[in-house]
Write the structure tokens for this entry.
Amino acid sequence: MAVSLTPKPKPVKPSAALVNPAQVALATFSGCASLCGAAATSATTVSCAVAYSGGADSTALLHAACALWPGQVRAIHVHHGLQTAADQFEANCRAVCAQLKVPLDVIKVNAKHAAGESPEDAARQARYMGLADAALALGVSQVLLGQHADDQVETILLALSRGAGLAGLSAMPAVFERAGMQFWRPLLDVPGACLRDWLTQAGHAFVDDPSNTDERYTRNRIRARLLPALADAFPQFRQTFARSASHAAQAQVLLDEIAAQDLLHVGSPPAIKALQALSRPRQANVLRHWLLVCHHVRPSAAQLAQLLDQVAACTTRGHQIHLKVANGHVLRAVSHLQWLSPI
């Protein structure tokens, strides 16, 4: 399927109403003071990079960053190579960046998914690792991402459809770190339609990724079917969903703090008797924390429930535990649990 390059409309006269909503959001985003300070002290310092796909969201964000910090912005384009239109995406990004006089770095990543791995998850992980590596090599301090309010709602609904816990329902954080690089999402309060409307009115071209309309993917079905229904039934759904995600994120922080305290008590690796002294919910919380923080794995709900059952049943010296958890195993090692990573 060919790339759809939104045509430029006839020039319009600038007006007070023609304000880039991405620029407003970026200017008021927490942490932007540091970038503004860097821009004021040096005309050559590269302060940030925009993850630039050529789509509407990242195009509006790139224009916003350039307006706020002229000469301080780079663009990084990730070439996934997953569809025939990928080369056209890159060509469009080069044209826009040349027009804006923004240095563009194109990185190619291997986004093929392994057996049993979600294609979307594999592409996302490859993209973030590629962006982090490129940004570190360029010496920038932040990478700006174009996810907006509709993306946030889609993420929450996707998490609900998968039976996610608080961590999943917290959706996308506005600031996070990956592979030594800080990422910002300044547009999470901005509806996607506002960004597209501004680009069209201002006459800025952008690319429509044809894969975004492929309803074989759950996120695309949510976008095409659920969001219009939500907008009709609950016009303020973006704000209320974001508030729920914020509550979930706060609760998850509290659980993480309790888990860290409990891990100090039960030890790492965890002592079985110390675990048995905790309630079952706290056992689940601390074991999940131990596996994630110490071994970088996440057990499924079924695996964690089975592990908790085995911990409760471990009342005799001869009771053995040998359970598959994530991609490895949890064993009983005398009085403690032990994680055995895959060979």
